[in-house]
Amino acid sequence: MKYKLGIDLGGTKTSVVVLDQNNQAVYNKRLPTPASNYAEILKTIKLLVNHAQQAIPALDAQTIGVGIPGALQQDNSTVKNANTQILIGKTLKTDLETILQRNVIIANDANCFATSEATDGSAKGHALVFGVILGTGVGGGIAVMGKPWAGPNRLAGEWGHNPFPFHDAEAKHRPCYCGKSDCIEKIISGPALSQEYFEQTRKHKSAKQIADAMAAGDPTAIRLFNDFYLNLAKALSTVINLLDPNVIVLGGGLSNIAEIYHEVPKLWGAYVFNATGKKTNIATKLVKNKWGDDSGVRGAAWLTDTK
Ligand SMILES: [Zn+2]
Question: Ligand 1 centroid to 160 CA: how many Å?
Fold first, then answer.
């Protein structure tokens, strides 16, 4: 097989990529996701695959990898845990196989992200990679030896809805849409930063605008980002305790904050399990993604790699 074909079904955009035998992207296209209409989602994917086939007549991929913001049930029958909620309970794999006349491999988008970065991204060649999407939500995915690790419950890496660890006793409780409170996602996502900024200043700013304000010397923004580095360090320390990954790679909008990569590793050692009482050196590397917004769709294409 000469080409690999991947689809990333995101909450707002759906992308296709074709990778050639050198893993160069030779075709890329994005369309808006019709997130409230399942039949239109299927049509959008079919359209993207048709466009790719027209652009690359030699495209020979008989299997397509598809990343979704959720996971399949253990028996592959239907979708569960999708934050594009129209997908929940839908027979996505068989529906896509029917309309595309190809085999379809579906995986969680954060697992696709981790796989992309572990294969030919900034965690290339590392045995155990934890990928984190830090954006509107907080998702996690695991790649082992360059392959996604979904787990028997298809829950591996679902760390954003674990309780936030080492939480201050006096911190305000943050209810989450999942029914619990104080999930990691409620503390370190973009909306969490915006909420804190609003509560302290009564001004609405996106996470990106707060980052710009930090760079311009806004004391509230500086303080909030210092809290954010500490909170991210606390949350990642539990990943290190549990998985001890070689590399943690960050994606999503907040991964563009350059300070994260030197501030967080200074802080996480205080929370990683260590009974010596002395400062220990944490060998896990914290890195920014290589492929940006394309990482998810590249990882979907890598799902079809049989090597
Ligand atoms: Zn939650």
Answer: 7
CA 213 – ligand 1 centroid, Å: 28
Q: How far is the CA of 179 from the centre of ligand 1 (A)?
A: 6
Residue type, 243: L
What range defines the domain where residue 73 resides? 4-115+294-302
Residues 200 and 185 in one domain: yes
Q: Same domain, yes or no, for 53 and 136?
A: no
Mean pLDDT throughout 224-246? 97
Cα of 290 vs centre of ligand 1, distance in Å, is 28
Residue 6, SS3? strand
Q: Are residues 106 and 131 part of one domain?
A: no
CA of 31 relative to ligand 1 center, distance in Å:
29
With bands split at pLDDT 50, 70 and 90, how would you rate the model's confidence at 279? confident
**Residues 23 and 169 reside in one and the same domain:** no
Residues 176 and 110 in one domain: no
- Are residues 187 and 63 located together in one domain of the fold? no
**213-225: b (≥16 Cβ within 10 Å) or e:** bbeeebebbeebb
3-state secondary structure of 13: strand
Buried b or exposed e, range 261-294, using 16+ CB within 10 angstroms: eebbbebbeebbeeeeeeeeebebbbbbbbbeeb
Alpha carbon of 174 to ligand 1 centroid (Å)? 9
Q: What is the tens place of the pLDDT at every residue in 67-88?
A: 999 999 999 999 998 878 899 9
Q: What angle do CA 87, 68, 285 make, to 5 degrees?
A: 145
pLDDT digit string (tens) for 124-151? 999 999 999 998 889 999 999 999 999 9
